[in-house]
Amino acid sequence: MDKTDELILDLLKGNARMSFEELGQAIGMSRVGAKKRVAKLEKEGIIRGYNTCIYREGEVTLYIELVTKPDKFEDVLKFLANRTAYIRQIFKTSKENHIQIVAVSTDVEGLNYLLNTIRKVCDKDITELHFHTVKDVIKDVYGGIDKYNERKSVSVDSGSDGAVTGCEREEETRGQIQVHDVPDEGTV
Length: 188
Known about the structure:
- The chain is an alpha+beta fold.
- It has helices spanning 3-14, 20-27, 31-43, 73-81, 108-122; strands at 60-68, 87-92, 98-105, 126-133, 139-140, 145-146, 185-187.
- Helices cover 30% and strands 20% of the residues.
């Protein structure tokens, strides 16, 4: 990967719907050249897909951390991976038998249902269960939020040698997310 590839990734993070024409102009390359670069990044598995960032008023995000018994890690992970309602992401971490989950719902009841289901089904397999609600999103490069840097610049400018050197792009920011009547954190 070179600097142009990095720049393409930065531009697509802010707007995955950017046309190859717009992308090519931003990096000083033809539409076809930009398309070939993106195809190469996709083939190499660097770009694994394109997502739509959806914002719903009143949406509640919950981070769940759990530690399993050593011999039950894969069983719990498989159970969680097959729960599609509310769970957006599941991570294995470097901590032994540790799983982190990002869950989202339009109401607190949905997240309580998820936590109660995990407790009910996995209770004997889990040694620790912690959860925290998100009160405010400070930065989300995929959702266009950066409260401490409202204006981002991406350098793009084609010099005589074709090197990328300067251009500017603004990203839209979203207001503060308010969460009411949700426990801030918990431990089981």
